[in-house]
């Protein structure tokens, strides 16, 4: 999910991973979260989108990046322009380095960063990291439509959050249970490591300046759930806020109601949470600890 605070909306990236069917990009009107029918508008269909990022342009329009995964195992990054609820395709970035692309983030109007969960495209690269504990995930840079690796040696590089004004780049190392904080001006320097209580997934910024991270407390249970294997009916959901004062757990559930959270947005005193497999979103009161104050599970976007 990519938040547009000024317009009170968010862009959602979704598809049914278990069924292998396509999904797309959707525009969520956050002002309708309390309405009987939540307003969600399809922007682009027929995609298997992964990480996305949204950027406000000087002319008031929005630029959108979306990782698009393909049946042949490759992936591309699609550039769009968003005007109101109209999405216009503006180009495709292709590179062998994108085959395991996971998340994407603008650096400026032209350059962007991406994470690759593994170091190669085939199943051997997945087995090397997931089974034998290798750390071959990396952060890449796309400049002038050319992709290159920027930072390597990451245990499943996942969400990323660049802050150029602070010379800072935070990367979620899912299999290391850590956030890695690099200097954008010197990305090869050793990062500052922040241990977190679970494998971090996507990262967003809360209004108070803290990073919000969806965490996976059990990689084993996540795998069972993700692939629908026996014992995988649910996987724990955990959301944390990280700042100078430390880590605060905002939501911690066993996953029976809402399994395997992957992203959380903070908007108007609420947490809006997405999942690996759930058919909707979970909306919680941000001040709540644990599950208290949480809403019921949202249904399909067209209804609730």
UniProtKB/TrEMBL annotation:
Source organism (scientific name): Azospirillum formosense
Protein name: Uncharacterized protein
Highest taxon of the lineage: Bacteria
